[in-house]
Specification:
The protein is mostly beta strands. It is about 10% helix and about 55% strand. The strands form six sheets. Strands 2, 5, 6, 9, 10 and 11 form a six-stranded mixed β-sheet that branches. Strands 16-17-18-19-22 form a five-stranded antiparallel β-sheet, with no helix packed on it. Strands 12-13-14-15 form a four-stranded antiparallel β-sheet, with no helix packed on it. Strand 9 and strand 10 form a beta hairpin. The termini are far apart.
Length: about 270
Amino acid sequence: MKYLILSFITALALIRPVAAQIQVSCRVEPQRAVLHEPVIATVRVSNNTGQTITLRDDRPGARLWLSIEQSPGRPIRQTAPFLLGEPMVIPAHQSVTRRINITQSYDLRQTGPYTVRARVDWAGETFMSGNIYLDVVPGLEIDRLTGAAAEDGSGRRLYRLLTLNRERGEHLFLRIDDQEQGLCYGVIHLGRSLRSQGITMQLDASNRINVLHQSGPGRYLHHVVSPNGNVVTRRAYTSDEPGVSLSRGRDGRMIVDGATTSLQDDP
């Protein structure tokens, strides 16, 4: 019996240094997201060994990957062929951080709770971060508009304004879909929103969607977004008076009336 106890203690002593060779931590932002909104995992890998470690997508025995499950315990498929792209080189006794777009890299097409863990395979061992919980929700639709996808009037896009309460405030999102093709061109976070001023959504002469909303006391945000989900401009305005609105200029662009351009953008 004494021999067995001594052997067990010796085995534990051998395991501890191996477990401490690599430390992996992970955080996810945001942790409550609208469906198709970009979700970023920030992974930090600390190399406590005496040699440089290189992690690559094409090396099963030396790679960084994410283990994502949708409750209860259903693994989520990785859709991107490469997670890192460039090799992740971690010098001895140093740490390296890498940001990964989970929405682009994994099949998160269903709403509901997810569990995310970062994992590193190296030297025949697997090192994992703690569990991070992600909640994907549809958002509350407050307005919608249909428009052409090109200046010649071809194609169609469905624009929807969605809201979500998180971080002790209401946030506004723009979702762009091609319903005929079954494609979502993106969900764009437009920032915090106050309901005291009505939210305006209009198309300009180039079929770009314009959204004007109040983001704080006396502060407004005007977004211009292309039919393919690219943010053309994002400009902040200030006004202490009500009645801030959008009007069409002579060249067909939308102009903000009743406010002045702010020198500082909203976060």
